[in-house]
């Protein structure tokens, strides 16, 4: 068996999330089926994150164990050939030691959330960003976000379906910046709760629109109560952008 | 009659181009129908450029003459409401004097051509960029492009369907730069021939892949013969990004 680490990009729009679901197609199913078509084996895909329906990835990290010998580049090419025309692509592939685990070895995860802030509806970014027509104060959002950075009980910002053992997480960074009519939220942590990024962005958007005072974000956090959540941002603006590992110098060789 | 200048963004994918066509839906038709629904008038849309089927726009400039009085912002909102769910949006609207013409007053046009240069197929950028799997030398492309800058007979880079009176144009700038695995070609001129940007990009892509020597771009230009064209780049990577006018300080007020 060889463990192959894959870097995966996908458009989450047509999928019921990354992880296998009973109710519709998933990215995991697409890749596992491609792997079976290529290798004849039933490899299981393990991934750094578990993205929801509609959430995108620019560089999800995953792994598959495959018995048949492959050059990583050839495996990547073969998987991509079988994945077509689904909007999933393996953008890098490399061999890893068998104790490397895409999920359990991952020491850092980063998400980006894209908001387009303008009156006009979206065209090219439809399904790729959250459209907010009311003007957002990105500076106020950034200031309010800083209350969430650090080691906290994030119960307020956690889906009722979250399977994490504890609601306590350390948020390493949460920044909000304006780039023209785009407002970009960037979040980094060792790990996140289910819906955490979308829940944080939802509350920050309330601050940005002046519906919440900046301090209300800190109050919502302190409440440790899902009912204190102002708003859960929609999935289509969310991108999984990076997973970090101890051995990162060797990453993405294919 | 009031002349309203519109700034228009659209995903060219589902359209048979900007201009009205007999064979399928056009951006012009979508906007004219929205304008009729809003005003009850049969206004004709005039635009700075004539983009082909599949070509996108981030900021096309157009105008409509409308008798019914409107605040520009209200007209923009009403047009966008009627345009949904087509991927066309009016992102700005302002009143102009009646001698201002979106096409004839335009003194500069700019296009961007996006190439994604990697082995893996495209996912989120499918239909939004030209996918070239073979490595491109963007520096060589940029050097070769400089032979096209200036006042030249661009017959080689002109569609046989081009309606321009003369093949002689002045290309103000043509740059090629790499941004990660994206290679971006930017072109600016007072005006362009039909297919000129795509034809120039096609030849530069041959240079980038080492299929053409850099000098061959200059030779193709000197040939003044469409048969000397190496390759016409596909439409999906092309974006109309800006139109310039003498009175630009007042632009995009809504």
TrEMBL record, chains A, B:
Residues 9-104, 144-246 form the Pseudouridine synthase I TruA alpha/beta domain. It comes from the Bacteria. It catalyses: uridine(38/39/40) in tRNA = pseudouridine(38/39/40) in tRNA. Its EC number is 5.4.99.12. Keywords: Isomerase, tRNA processing. Homodimer. Belongs to the tRNA pseudouridine synthase TruA family. PANTHER family: PSEUDOURIDYLATE SYNTHASE, TRNA PSEUDOURIDINE SYNTHASE-LIKE 1. This is tRNA pseudouridine synthase A. It comes from Aurantiacibacter luteus. The gene is truA.
């Amino acid at each position: 068996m060889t463990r192959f680490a894959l870097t995966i990009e996908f458009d989450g729009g047509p999928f019921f999330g990354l992880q296998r679901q009973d109710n519709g197609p998933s990215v995991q199913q697409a890749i596992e089926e491609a792997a079976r078509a290529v290798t004849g084996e039933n490899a299981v895909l393990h991934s750094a994150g578990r993205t929801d329906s509609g959430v995108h990835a620019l560089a999800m990290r995953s792994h598959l164990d495959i018995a048949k010998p492959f050059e990583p580049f050839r495996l990547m090419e073969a998987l991509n050939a079988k994945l077509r025309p689904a909007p999933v692509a393996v953008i890098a592939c490399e061999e890893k030691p068998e104790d490397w685990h895409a999920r359990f070895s991952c020491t850092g995860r980063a998400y980006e959330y894209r908001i387009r802030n303008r009156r006009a509806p979206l065209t090219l970014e439809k399904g790729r960003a959250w459209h907010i027509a009311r003007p957002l104060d990105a500076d106020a959002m950034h200031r309010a976000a800083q209350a969430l950075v650090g080691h906290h009980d994030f119960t307020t910002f956690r889906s009722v379906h979250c399977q994490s053992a504890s609601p306590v997480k350390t948020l390493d960074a949460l920044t909000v910046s304006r780039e023209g009519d785009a407002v970009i939220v960037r979040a980094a942590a060792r790990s996140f709760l289910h819906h955490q990024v979308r829940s944080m962005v939802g509350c920050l958007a309330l601050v940005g629109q002046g519906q919440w005072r900046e301090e209300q974000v800190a109050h919502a956090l302190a409440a440790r109560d899902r009912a204190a959540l102002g708003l859960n941002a929609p999935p289509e603006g969310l991108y999984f952008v990076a997973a970090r590992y101890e051995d990162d110098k060797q990453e993405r060789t294919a």
